[in-house]
Amino acid sequence: MSDYIDQTHLQIYNSNVWAYGNSKWLGYPILKYPCDLFLYQEILHEVQPDIIIECGTFNGGSAMFLCSILELIGKGKVLSIDIDPQPNLPTHERLSYLKASSTSMQALKAAREMITLEDTVLVILDSDHRKHHVLTELNLYYPLVTKGSYLIVEDTNINGHPVSPDFGPGPMEAVEDFLQSNTNFIIDEEKHKFLITFNPKGYLKRIK
């Protein structure tokens, strides 16, 4: 069964539907697997975040998706950070952008300044996928995540998990290292319920 799931995962990932610009949210390209978007809306409804920090903007499609769900639940704002965002990004009253490296003190300072002590905070890491960069992001941003909320690491499927086997150490390896020394988070196994996710073991829930 797992071999079948992996082969289906590979076919979807390498298909034309996954090609840039072929999938859109409200007209903006979005490079997300639909089942992961469904998981995102479940998480947002459950957690009711006041602040979402998104590392990795690209074309802004996922930021727009997040704002759409926040609009439906009637609360929350998004700060989307990217060192080289694309032009013509979507606009929304709940959305702000920062052009900076996600691992810079400028970005971390901007994120902290958005947050009050009463806020529920969720963080999404979807920028540079090399292990060192993702692990640095994990260590920088995890203190911002509130208990019961999530630190989501995108594209843990690369480097042979099961796609892009030649990528080299990436998000999955960063998560594994992070969890060895951080007991504040667990992998939310419920987020594997659709059998295929582009973020396997990447939905980290803060438990303490």
UniProtKB/TrEMBL annotation:
Keyword Transferase: yes
Protein name: Cephalosporin hydroxylase
Gene3D superfamilies documented for this protein: Vaccinia Virus protein VP39 (3.40.50.150)
GO biological process terms held by the UniProt record: DIM/DIP cell wall layer assembly; lipid biosynthetic process; methylation
Record organism: Priestia taiwanensis
Gene Ontology MF annotations: methyltransferase activity
Pfam families: RMNT_CmcI
SUPFAM superfamilies xref list: S-adenosyl-L-methionine-dependent methyltransferases
GO cellular component, one term: plasma membrane
Source taxon at top rank: Bacteria
Keyword Metal-binding in record: no
Keyword terms, alphabetized: Methyltransferase, Transferase
InterPro entries hit by this protein: RNMT_CmcI, SAM-dependent_MTases_sf
